[in-house]
Amino acid sequence: MKIKVMSLKGAEVREIEVADSVFDYPYKEHLIHLAVKSYLAAKRAGTHKTKGRGEVRGSGKKLWRQKGTGRARMGSIRSPIWRKGGTVHGPQPRSYRDKLSVREKKNALKSALSRKLADEQITVVESLDLDSP
Fold first, then answer.
1. Is the separation of the CB atoms in 104 and 112 below 8 Å?
2. How many CA atoms are closer than 13 Å to the CA of 24, on its beta-carbon side?
3. Residues whose CB falls within 8 Å of the CB of residue 19, separated by 6 or more in sequence, listed in order
4. In what order do the strands lie in the sheet with 12-17?
5. Which of 95, 63, 102 is nearest to 79 (CA)?
6. Per-residue pLDDT tens digits for 14-53
7. Strand runs (DSSP E) across 2-81, as ranges?
8. Which of 40, 52, 73, 91 has its CA 20 to 30 A from that of 114?
9. Could you tell me the sign of the dihedral formed by the alpha carbons of 48, 54, 60, 64, in that order?
10. How far is the CA of 108 from the CAs of 32, 35, 87, 103, in angstroms?
């Protein structure tokens, strides 16, 4: 398969031969979807966190005796049902990475490159040397 090499002025200079194994690969939308999803998931920070009852500031003393007060049994002021208490099943730091195999990554890239070439969206430039900026 051949691709045109262009100069900076837009004139065709020559043609180069490219590998058919890369640029003649069938378009697989699902692979590209997985690659993009994996890339975006890896960018997520995953640093959100809430404190549980063991991490919240406060005493561990039993508030009142178990029996004889007429009130409910209560062991800690930092119980989740109390104001300023800990959070039950709150978010914890974690990684959102979705690992792709090496073969999946390569095939997704080949699929995207072959599709771009078929849509004539790839331009090869001979040189990027400029006289002045």
1. no
2. 8
3. 1
4. 12-17, 2-6, 124-125
5. 63
6. 999 989 899 999 999 999 999 999 999 999 999 999 999 9
7. 2-6, 12-17
8. 40
9. positive
10. 5, 7, 42, 8
